[in-house]
Write a structure and sequence with these properties.
mainly alpha; 5 helices; 0% strand
Length: 120
């Protein structure tokens, strides 16, 4: 997840957006492995669930900061439309969302808030 966030935060043009999309493909495979490992384990303890909650909250904070940086970059970038087109499919990956949701369910991290797809 850190690599994904760093990659997203480094997008400045179409070329860097395309490079980020390639890293998302690798992240999808890694997430699949993590989900399989989590499903093979016994149910997590309350202590393990709390540890995962803390990790998720840390990533969410970093994600918000990177999202703000990216929003500003897109607002100021003349190639914003082309960058958005490159990113759209990678960021709206239903398979990755499904795997993330399953991991959240295992660790009791489901959000009650509705998520919007990028571009809505």
């Amino acid at each position: 997840m850190t690599g994904i966030m760093e990659g997203m935060g480094s997008i400045t043009d179409v070329k860097s957006a395309e490079a980020f999309v390639k890293t998302m493909e690798g992240a999808n495979a890694t997430l699949k492995e993590v989900l399989a490992a989590a499903e093979a384990l016994d149910s997590p303890t309350d202590e393990e669930k709390e540890a995962m909650k803390a990790i998720k909250e840390g990533f969410e904070g970093k994600g918000q900061a990177i999202g703000q940086k990216m929003f500003q970059m897109m607002a100021e970038n003349p190639d914003a439309e082309a960058i958005g087109a490159v990113l759209m499919e990678a960021l709206n990956n239903p398979q990755m969302k499904e795997m993330s949701d399953k991991l959240d369910a295992i660790y009791g991290l489901e959000d009650d808030a509705e998520e919007l797809e990028i571009g809505e």
